[in-house]
Specification:
Blueprint (H helix, E strand, L loop, with lengths): L1 H18 L4 H4 L14 H12 L5 E8 L2 E9 L16 E2 L4 H15 L9 H4 L18 H6 L17 H9 L15 H15 L3 H10 L8 E2 L13 E3 L5 E3 L6 H5 L9 E3 L1 H15 L13 H8 L30 E6 L3 E6 L4 E7 L8 H21 L1
Antiparallel strand pairs: 1-2, 1-10, 3-7, 4-7, 5-6, 8-9, 9-10
Helix pairs in contact: 3-13, 4-8, 4-9, 4-12, 11-12
Length: 400
Amino acid sequence: MLCVYFRLRHLRHDLAVRFKKGMKHEASSLIAVPAIESNRFAAAYQILKDALAAHAFPGCAFGVFAGGKVVLQDALGGFTYDDDAPAVTAETVFDVASITKVVSTTAAAMLLYQRGLLDLDLPLGELLPGFVVGRSAGELAHRVTLRNLLAHNSGLPGYVDFYRTITTPAALYRACLELPLEAAPGARAEYSDPGFILLGKALEELTHEYLAIWARKEVFEPLQLTATKFCPAPGAQALIPPTEIDSTLRRRRIQGEVQDEHAWLLRGAGGHAGLFSNVPDLLRFAGVILAAVHPPTPSLNTPLLTAGTVECFAERQGPPGSSRALGWDTPSENSSAGAHFSSHSIGHLGFSGCSLWIDLDAAIAVVLLTNRTWPDRSAATAQLIREVRPAFHDAIRKAL
């Protein structure tokens, strides 16, 4: 299984990682935080402290990249609401849920596109014949392209709770392939998990490799995203804040394993979810995006992406009114990014309470990681995080 592969890899490389530990600060100079005025971000801290008091989430880690460097990296709260819960630190690893869609799946698509290996307008059926087999030649499925999947305008439904009846990866892929379209491709914007599950599988057909393994080799390792991975090793799971007490499917505390049921069915790694990461890594990833459009960026000597690739994937797609770019979201009215991120910004949210926003004009990135779904997926915490995110981002931008 894929998780077993990663766990064996963790064990094989443990000694090598310890040997190289002395090189960490040189290799990760992008995450070195300079001294700042203690009250500079006081308003942002207060918003998060109020959120903790309101039980929007038990703990959070957050960071800001501006001026070509990290200017804030900190944490508040604990893993759970228990008095003796471990404290969250700036380097605590979280289940980042759908941020997987941009840091893994979209990043892979960007690289493949940049290398001339991915045609955005290639019909999905040419990579995954099961999507069109059995459908008549005139059916809309034949018109669905990779661009449609990235832009969330394929016509596929937003979500289907397959996990209630499906128990294997093969059955899940088959169910996604056989989904009827609810709208013509390009006619309706509908954020779609099944669409990104299929996109992840399509990219595997292009690379002839598991997407999780390809992303590790081509994205995470070149950028030295040392905390970013699928399927955390068993010994590391207790160091990750839990996301919920699952009383319906797995019937246990979910900690250090992916919360998303469909990613869990996919052995921990899907095109839509499954990734674990922390603030330093996500700020470094954001720095790479910004380095492409604002070269040179101090402390960064890994030009993984070009400006043309970033701008292509940052451009809003159809239909009119959609905020979706290719893989990325962009600020819309009442955006989680708040009121101060420019229209030339990209970002993404995660169901677990995580967010990443990057202003391509201002060269600013903000990361907020939480486990707001602990101990359950209450509507109250969902509403609270919707209020916290824009307020937090506004406070950060006013402080810069």
